[in-house]
């Protein structure tokens, strides 16, 4: 993906930092001695950032529409994962279990599309337009009004849903795993905090510090490797007859990249099921990027939001560990296997957030 130019990148950083600061402030106000489940706070803050970028609109945390959207997204991610076999066996839709799931998914889609139209109408009625994907698409749609097949209303709705849903769920889930690994591996957390103390002092981390906070970057990458949030990857399709090893792959074949298999293959990773950020640190102390590390997939159809995701994850992780020491409640039983829908999410858990001096 083409990188953002300097001024756009700076503006994006400020928008992300506003979200990060809100998240940290909310967590500080909700601290409890026996820990808290940070999911709702994180979902609101990360989701609202995507609301801002995609729709040009943000919500108060207890807004009823926003609470409904968050619930719908959580349920949708679970249902899409369960409904995955329908891609390969369409006849399963006639079974009650899958039929109910499909009805729920379609009903949710129609309701969200209706809401999106309301947001589009609000945008068009405002004299001052927002800097958002919705505004850019709407402008392109009007500019190309003579070619109605190029920008369509259904495409508009689905792109809004894809950008918001994919951007929120993947970043939120990756960061939840990161915090869990920091709590279960306190020695790795201390390495990161010692590195920040030594290199930044009291300065708050910013994107310009990515190239020096190697321990932090390595821990984020190890989280993405060990807990591939889309274990089966995202299905692609072949556009021509091709050959993969000894296999002939015809044009139009669905190809599913098994990210979990790649990221835990002992041929590429020593002791692959252990959390070892040092595997991403080269002998000279620089950041190593093995070819078998593909959290955003690869090629022309890789994740379009990879740069935004990297910015969000770095700033969230850096500012969170700068502000808190994260640990587990006494006698907590933490399940690191997770629950798999379309993404692999942590099971409900509580963490202790202790403000750092």
UniProtKB/TrEMBL annotation:
Binding residues for heme: 303
Transmembrane regions listed in the UniProt entry: none
One GO cellular component, as annotated: cytoplasm
Cofactors, names only: heme
Alphabetized UniProt keyword annotations: Heme, Iron, Metal-binding, Monooxygenase, Oxidoreductase
Organism superkingdom: Eukaryota
InterPro entries the record matches: Cyt_P450, Cyt_P450_E_grp-I, Cyt_P450_sf, Cytochrome_P450_fam2
SUPFAM superfamilies: Cytochrome P450 (SSF48264)
Record-level Gene Ontology MF annotations: heme binding; iron ion binding; oxidoreductase activity, acting on paired donors, with incorporation or reduction of molecular oxygen, reduced flavin or flavoprotein as one donor, and incorporation of one atom of oxygen; steroid hydroxylase activity
Protein family per UniProt: Belongs to the cytochrome P450 family.
Name of this protein: Cytochrome P450 306a1
Lineage: Eukaryota, Metazoa, Ecdysozoa, Arthropoda, Hexapoda
């Amino acid at each position: 993906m083409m990188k953002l130019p300097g001024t756009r990148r700076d503006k994006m950083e400020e928008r992300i930092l506003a979200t990060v600061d809100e998240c940290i402030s909310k967590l500080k106000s909700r601290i409890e001695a026996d820990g808290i489940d940070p999911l709702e706070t994180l979902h609101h803050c990360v989701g609202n950032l995507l609301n801002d970028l995609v729709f040009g609109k943000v919500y108060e945390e207890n807004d009823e529409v926003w609470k409904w959207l968050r619930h719908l997204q959580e349920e949708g991610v679970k249902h899409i994962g369960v409904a995955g076999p329908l891609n390969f066996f369409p006849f399963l839709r006639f079974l009650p279990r899958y039929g109910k799931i499909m009805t729920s998914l379609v009903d949710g889609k129609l309701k969200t599309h209706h809401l999106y139209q309301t947001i589009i109408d609000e945008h068009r009625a405002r004299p001052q337009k927002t800097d958002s994907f919705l505004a850019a698409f709407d402008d392109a749609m009007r500019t190309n009004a003579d070619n109605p097949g190029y920008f369509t209303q259904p495409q508009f709705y689905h792109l809004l849903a894809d950008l918001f849903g994919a951007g929120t769920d993947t970043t939120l889930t990756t960061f939840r795993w990161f915090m869990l690994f920091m709590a279960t591996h306190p020695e790795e957390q201390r390495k990161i905090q010692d590195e920040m103390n030594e290199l930044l002092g009291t300065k708050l981390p910013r994107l310009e510090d990515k190239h020096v906070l190697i321990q932090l970057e390595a821990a984020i990458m190890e989280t993405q490797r060990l807990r591939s949030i889309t274990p089966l990857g995202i299905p692609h399709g072949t556009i021509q007859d091709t050959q993969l090893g000894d296999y002939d792959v015809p044009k139009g074949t669905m190809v599913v990249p098994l990210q979990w298999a790649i990221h835990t293959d002992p041929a590429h990773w020593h002791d692959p099921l252990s959390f070892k950020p040092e595997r991403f640190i080269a002998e000279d102390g620089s950041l190593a990027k093995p070819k078998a590390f593909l959290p955003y997939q690869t090629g022309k159809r890789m994740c379009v939001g990879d740069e935004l995701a990297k910015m969000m994850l770095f700033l969230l992780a850096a500012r969170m560990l700068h502000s808190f020491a994260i640990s587990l409640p006494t006698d907590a039983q933490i399940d690191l296997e997770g629950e798999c829908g379309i993404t692999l999410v942590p099971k409900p858990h509580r963490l202790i957030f202790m403000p750092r001096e």
